[in-house]
Amino acid sequence: MKQKLEENDLETIYIKDEISKCEGIEELKERIFPMIRTQQEQWTEKINQIITESGLTKSKFAEVCGVSRVSVNKWCKGAIPKNRETFLRIGMVAGYDLERMNQLLRRYGQYPALYSKSLEDCVCIFVLERKYGLETLEKYNYILDKIKANIVRDNDEEQEDLATELFDAKLSYVKNEDDLEKFIAENSMMFAMAYHRFYAYVKMHIMANYQEFGGSVFELAEGQEWSSSLRQCVSAIRQKKWYPTRNKIISLGLHLSMDHEQIDEMLELAHMEPLCAKNIFESVIMFILDDASLNDLLDTESEEYDPDDLCRYARKILEDLDLPEVEAFISELPEMDEDVW
C-alpha cells in the first residue's frame, strides 16, 4: 500500500508540473486531460466497489443508507451525491474506519475530512471507532439526535481554543455514549467556533488587499455585486455558520484574486486537500491561476488592477470547455467584457 501511495503522489506531482508548462488551454486539453479521469468516472468505479465489498444488494444498500434504490442506481452510473451527509452515510454503511472515511469525503466528495470540532463529525468519529457494523449509521443518528435534544450552550462562557490535535486526543479518551454526551456538553462553545481560523484568514486577506471594505466579506460581496449564491455563502461566513464546500472555497478565492498558494491555504484551513492536479476541473483552475499570475492579474497593488479580472478570465476559459459539472460554478463568475477579452 505504501508503494502504491508513493507512486500516486509522484504521478500527481508530475501532472502538476506539466500543467505549469502549458502555454494555452488547448495545450492543457491535449497534454493533461488524457492523463486524468473525470470525477464521475472515479466515483462510478468507487461506489460499485463499495457495494460489491459490502456484500449487500443495491436494494439493501439503499435501505441501510436511507435512500431510494433509484438513487443508488444513479450513483452506480456516475451521479455524484449532492451533499456531504450522503457520503457520511455511504462510508458508515461500508464499515469504513476514520482514514477511509476521510479519503471518501476528500477524494470522491470534494468535502472536508471529518473535523472533531464539528458536532456532527465528532459523533461520527466516535461511532466509526466503535465499529458497530451495519448498525453504525443507525447508532450515529440515535446518538446525534439525543445530544442535540439535550445540549445546552452558554453563550457567555469563555472557553480556551484547543489545537485540533489536542481536541482529537481528548475525544479519543471518550469510552461510551454517556462520556461522549458529557464531553460535548463541556466543549459546546468549541463546536460553535469551528472554522474560525478559516474566517480569520479570509478577513485578513480582505483587510490587506481591499481596505475600502474594512475587512468585511459582506461589504465586499455587496460592493462587487457577487452572485446571490456566493453572497448567501458570505452571509453564512459572516455569521460563522458556514460549513465549507470545496467549489465555494475555490470560487471565493477567485473573487478575492488569490493565487494558487493562497487558495491551497484556505482549503487547508477548511480541512481539505490542496488543489488536485488529477481532477480535470481543478487542473484547469491551476492553469488559470498560473497563467493569471504570469500576466499580473493578481497584482492587487497595480493601478490597473480590477477585482473582477481573474473571475472574468476564469469564466472565459471554463466556458470554452465541456465540463458540465461546473455549470453552477461558472454562473457565479461575472459576465465577460467583450471589449477586454
TrEMBL record:
Gene3D superfamilies (UniProt xref): lambda repressor-like DNA-binding domains
Entries under CDD domains matching the protein: HTH_XRE (cd00093)
InterPro entries xrefs: Cro/C1-type_HTH (IPR001387), Lambda_DNA-bd_dom_sf (IPR010982)
GO molecular function: DNA binding
Protein name: XRE family transcriptional regulator
Organism: Coprococcus comes
